[in-house]
Amino acid sequence: MSATNVTNRRRTFRKDAVGWAFVAPCVIILGVFLLIPILMAAWVSVSDWTGRGSPLASGFVGLENYESFLGKGGLPTKDFGLSIRNNAYYFVFVVPLQTVLSLGLAVLVNRKMLRAKAFFKTAFYFPSVTSTVAITTLWTFLFSATGAINAMLEKLSVDGPNWFNDPRGIFHLMLGNPSAPPGLKQSEFLGVSLWDWLSGPSVAMCAFIVMAVFTTSGTFMLLFLAALQTIGEETKEAALVDGANGWQRFWHVTLPMLRPTLFTVITLGTIGTWQVFDQIYVSGHGSPAKTTLTPAFLSYQSAFVDQQWGRGAATSFVLFAIIIVFTILQRMVTGSSDLSKEKRQRKLLRPLRWLKEKQVAS
Amino acid sequence: MRHRRGTATGSAHWIVFALLLAMAVVYVFPFVLQLANSFKTDSEASLAGMSLLPDTWTTAAYRTLFTGSAFPRWFANSVIVAVAVTAGRVLFGSMAGYALARLEFHGRQAIFAFVVGVMAVPGVVLLIPKFLVIRELGLYNSYLGLIVPLLVDASGVFIMKNFFESIPRAVEEAAYVDGASVLRTYWSVVLPMARPALMSVVILSFQGSWNELSHFIVASSDPALVNLTKGVAQLVGGGLGAGNQYPLKLAAATLMTIPMAILFFVFQRRIMNASTGAVKE
């Protein structure tokens, strides 16, 4: 072996050692507190661990824990079904509302001539920096039976509900809260009757929906603002020259260019809305009548309160799967990630061409 | 024609301004109510929550918090944890970020993929797993158990890596030519240049650990280790004694928000940039 070869090898070894030393703390902590826990929980989800002794010493029970709430019927299945229903409605309402509101705020705040821009940004973003615990505390006060929200509704001659104690679903309420038709009452899915699946979010859940929109729209507004600022003035000017009005410009030029950000916001929104835990822990643990129970909280409750560790771990894996499936579905529907940069650019220019053609045609 | 167009955009301008102003009131008013009601008596807060000025001003809620509850202890614990977590995330995040951006070593790609993969795991599904590991390691009911699992945050590594990739290599290379070691270069040349990115990580880390709840729920059951989020959550759930006690709860919520509010107003500009930079796309 030649001398240079040895020095070279020694040098690569040194380089490797230094590099690994720099990333070591990070890799060790992420490994010990993220990777190993996931593997351990995977084991617990198929074991009969009761919370005593080491989980590694417990017995293998196959998919029993998963079956206990997915297939067997009974209370665990019903609780899981309810938590999925609650969270699904939460997701369906929060994601579109927060996306549209944050986009609207961003477009308005981004106007060139707007005065007090910094003030508006601060006002809209402030709720995002406070903790969920503090906001939930405030919410239980604002939405109490005699609270500020109902006081305001009273001024509009509306009799406000007792928000956090009202389990009635809003779709049922819209129909005048009739008794369930027998056909819908008898058929069940995950222990919950079809009629109850169609209830809509409960009044109590609506208060949480408003809270989520209130606390997240500021963050997403900043994302949209950052994207809006990178859209070149040229593009706007080109559209202006083409004689497009404000609405056309927004719909055919700005919005398509915001597609990647829109995609990010919707994805983050989806992931976030399936992880509702803090607010449920602070306020009522899923009450009233389990209409604010979420899978994330149910998983915690099964394990730490009911001591059903296997079922709790299994619930969290099912939740994980739900989040992954929704993210993938979203990718397929919005499908912006698979576009190459060039393709995307071409796509962005298409609306301009369209406007020009329209101009010529008229 | 030209003139008419001018006034049309002018009035549109005012409509937008008025609309935004109304929205801003909606966003800010709840916090004003929170502050006002924390100085009311229990019954006034329950029955006349909308009034901005208390009929009878009282600091009873704040006095109860400081003398009749463990609130000072919770506050101290939150400070201890937030400071330690922030220090760790800044140090470890910048080290890993630097290595991933600049140092050449075997396995770099794999580690980067690992960090990205870990970021994708939603935090809420990790509650039970984290508890299991903390218990197995004997860290349950200790400050270490509260702090160590939070010491590294993948998004901090990301921010630092992106920043190091954006600055020119020339300065570091000069240091290496002068014979400085990697550690020395990192510490006295690279880190001072990275102040903007470091500040972003400081702010996000402090905010993240100050507002964290679920990790503390599963990491300890010792009353002496309760932090603000957990303490206030218990206060809101059970309260101290009977009744709604809204002033007490709102005072607690106000006090726990103040450090975040100060941080926010001092570093406003940076926070608003940091939070967009931290997003994983």
How would you characterize this protein structure?
The complex is a heterodimer of chains A (362) and B (281). Chain A is mainly alpha-helical. Chain A has 17 helices and two strands. Chain A has helices at residues 3-45, 64-70, 74-109, 117-129, 132-142, 148-155, 170-174, 182-186, 194-197, 203-230, 233-241, 246-257, 259-273, 278-282, 295-305, 309-334, 341-361, and strands at 188-189, 192-193. In chain A, strands 1-2 form a two-stranded antiparallel ribbon. In chain A, helix 12 (246-257) runs antiparallel to helix 17 (341-361) and helix 13 (259-273) packs antiparallel against helix 16. With 281 residues, chain B is mostly helical. Chain B has helices at residues 2-37, 42-47, 60-68, 71-102, 108-119, 127-136, 143-147, 154-166, 170-177, 182-193, 195-211, 214-219, 228-238, 246-266, 268-277. In chain B, helix 1 crosses helix 14, helix 3 crosses helix 14 (246-266) and helix 11 crosses helix 15 (268-277). Residues 1-5 of chain B have low confidence and may be disordered. Classes of the chains: A mainly alpha (362), B mainly alpha (281). Chains A and B meet through helix 1, helix 3, helix 4, helix 5 and helix 6 of A and helix 1, helix 2, helix 4, helix 5 and helix 6 of B.
